[in-house]
């Protein structure tokens, strides 16, 4: 974690006593707390870690920012800053310019199943194949204890999730009208999962709900893996250009087999044989991956 120097300060109101109230903000969260009068950078970092340690990926770099009233926005924490008055601080992850490593572990991963509904069946290309792959992914999630979040786009008009997909044990199944899956209830559910770092995302449509969900998630500092053989659109052109665009933003476009084997990581994993059996049940080549 590192802070950048910048001129100026502000966003504070006087406070007396031996401690000063501070609002600590990270991602979508804001938590009031207090620190000793005169607390400096190191103590502030410790406070952020005590409040958000289970949310912060220590492999990333961060900048601490202070809300400046004279600018009506956050500025980088001034060099030598100490807390003397009530203020609002936030911890911001810096964008990493190198290719994301994309490591997956069950304890830091959540699966997002997006709008796999009955009314889409006749319209979405290769819909039967992505249903089959999606079902295997959800079986894998249950075997590995990975939380699953499911949405349904306007189910009153578009129907529920298809019967072939077993939602047993899903953490959340939500109706929505917004295209993105990032609803307040979803954000609350993510906040309840300690140490979540990666989202495995699949469903329909690639260029609408999948794309908008992925962009919102990376904007919140999460790593996103889109399962190419479990996502589709009505148009293969829309799908292809969406995947290309998302890959350029640092989102990982991958396959169901790669995801499942990365999550077990070792043939000695106690669930390896069961995961291997899921992979062996793969549908015949549909041509979907040739259109990535």
Automatic annotation (TrEMBL):
UniProt cross-references to InterPro entries, sorted A to Z: Isochorismatase-like_dom, Isochorismatase-like_sf, Isochorismatase_domain
Xref: Pfam families: Isochorismatase
Signal peptide positions (record): none
Isochorismatase-like domain location: 109-257
SUPFAM superfamilies the UniProt entry points to: Isochorismatase-like hydrolases
Family (UniProt): Belongs to the isochorismatase family.
Taxonomy, superkingdom: Eukaryota
Organism listed in the record: Pampusana beccarii
Protein name as catalogued: Isochorismatase domain-containing protein 1
